[in-house]
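hey can u run this one w/ zinc ion bound, need the structure tokens asap thx
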Amino acid sequence: MRSSPEVAINSFQLAVLLDDTEKLFYNFVIDHLVFCAHCRALAKDGVEVTEICLTTMNDIWIKGRCRVCHHEVVRLFTFGSNELFYARASQLRKTINLKLKKA
Ligand SMILES: [Zn+2]
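ok here u go:
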């Protein structure tokens, strides 16, 4: 597969990208399974997401802040290995590129 550039997306675009199961998984991880290097533990109150990015492999990484200590955290979601997700991500890229051309 040809690799595409990394692109920032917003939470609305992410919502379109994820199916119901992926949404549940994503929300569960955000609330319970992001490691905070400052707390040296999983962020027990979850994280505040500040940046979402679609990687060159059509995975998703997020940057955010631990809700306990506000230290920056990052987490990768390897959704890109799912063909259906990959296809939706490629479709989203096309709409983003169209908007860029119009702007
Ligand atoms: Zn923390």
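Residues 7-102 form one domain. anyway lmk if its weird
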